[in-house]
Amino acid sequence: MSITTEFHDPRAEPQAVAEPYELDVDLERPMTIGLVANGFPDSVRFLDHVEKSLAQVVPAASFVRYDKGDASSVVSGSMLEEIQAECQAVVAAYGH
Predict the structure, then answer these.
(1) What share of the chain is helix, strand, coil (3-state, %, to 5)?
(2) Torsional class of 35: left (φ above 0), alpha (ψ -120 to 50), beta (otherwise)
(3) Is residue 34 within a helix (H) or strand (E), and if so which, with residue range?
(4) Smallest Cα–Cα separation from 37: which of 2, 11, 61, 65?
(5) Is 48 helix (H, G, I), strand (E, B) or coil?
(6) HSE value, Cβ hemisphere, 13 Å, CA-based, for 93
(7) Distances 24 to 17, 21, 29 between C-alpha atoms, Å
(8) Rounded to whole angstroms, what are the CA distances from 37 to 5, 25, 52, 55, 69?
(9) pTM, rounded to two decimals
(10) Hey, is 90 helix, strand or coil?
(11) Under-50 pLDDT residues of the chain
């Protein structure tokens, strides 16, 4: 007796058309980029890699780190104000 197992691949073809996103930024001009970790494991470590990559593309950038510390909470109002006051761009990282 032979047994056959079939698997269903749940991935669907994307329905939305990808639209290019163009950012009008002078990469030679100094800017501060905020890196926000969401509190999940590895989100801070992931941002280490993001910072390293961005630093190569945007050599005039400086980076400021934020960590909301708890993946189940939202960024506080005071942290948002701080980010807005200090940064011209922000990257939020989601760990797993």
Answers:
(1) 25, 20, 55
(2) beta
(3) strand 31-37
(4) 65
(5) helix
(6) 25
(7) 22, 10, 12
(8) 41, 24, 15, 18, 8
(9) 0.73
(10) strand
(11) none
d(CA 11, CA 86): 40
| DSSP characters over 50-81 | HHHHHHHH-TTEEEEEEE---TTSPPPHHHHH
Question: For 27, which DSSP code?
Answer: T
Residue 12 phi/psi, 5° resolution?
-110, 160
pLDDT for the residue numbered 95: 62
User: Which of left, alpha, beta for 42 (phi over 0: left; psi -120 to 50: alpha)?
Assistant: left
Question: How far apart are alpha carbons 59 and 29 in whole angstroms?
Answer: 9
pLDDT for 7 equals: 80
pLDDT at 96: 62
Are 38 and 94 in contact by the 8 Å Cβ rule? The answer is yes
